[in-house]
Amino acid sequence: MTINTEDLLNSILDSLARIEYIKPEDIPNIDLYMDQVTTFMDKRLRTTTRNPGDDKILTKTMINNYAKNELLPPPEKKKYAKEHMLLLIFIYYYKSILSINDIQALLKPITDKFFKTGDGFNLESIYNEVFGMEEEQVEILKADVRDKFMRAEETFTDAPKEDQQFLKKFSFICLLSFDVYTKKLLIEKLVDELRVKTEEE
Fold first, then answer.
1. Which among 29, 108, 112, 143 is most buried, taking Cβ atoms within 10 Å?
2. pLDDT per residue over 151-171, tens digit each?
3. CA 95 to CA 99: how far, in whole Å?
4. What stretch of H or E contains 105?
């Protein structure tokens, strides 16, 4: 079954429009046991997975490994605070593009300085600031995806007719992949600079 190219583009753009993030006010204001943490994350992030029926969002083993690798401060009396939840959300999004060491280098200075600092500027303030840019970025991303899709549709006009649809889709994937690849290199360079600066302090 072939999907109309316009339908494919609209499907992709619709999925981008549905991207949501967990707002701090959605997180319970009481400390949670590990089972409650994994249940909450599973419920709120299930739609972000490739295979919603099978993919694991967060397991007890993952949480224990994050604590072991100093990505996450230890729980207090086996309970996780709202700040733990915010860090787990950051880790969830970073882990698909960065190594554990890179995530540690990125989050440790924030955790050291802003974890459980009480009122005023804290981890929740940082979370709100960066995720607050989401809506504007989604619109920019949708425009960029639309542009790449249209450019890909103009490729391989001289290829055999029966191969054109596949090759156009391949071209679209290549354009998106190059974008991800270059941004990943940039992120890694920035993390390396942060790591050096942190080690010097």
1. 108
2. 999 999 999 999 999 999 999
3. 7
4. helix 100-114
63 contact partners, CB below 8 Å, separation of at least 6: 34, 37, 38, 72, 88
Taking alpha carbons only, the member of 181, 185, 166, 174 closest to residue 148 is 174
Phi, psi of 168 (to 5 degrees): -65, -40
Residue found under tokens 């860090």: 87
Express the helix, strand and coil content of the chain in percent, nearest 5 each: 70, 0, 30
Six-digit token pair at 93? 């999004």
Q: Please, are residues 164 and 156 in contact by the beta-carbon 8 Å criterion?
A: yes
Helices (H), 18-59: 34-45
Give the single-character DSSP code of 7: H
- Whether the CB-CB separation of 75 and 37 falls below 8 Å is answered with no
* pLDDT tens for each residue of 36-45: 999 999 988 8
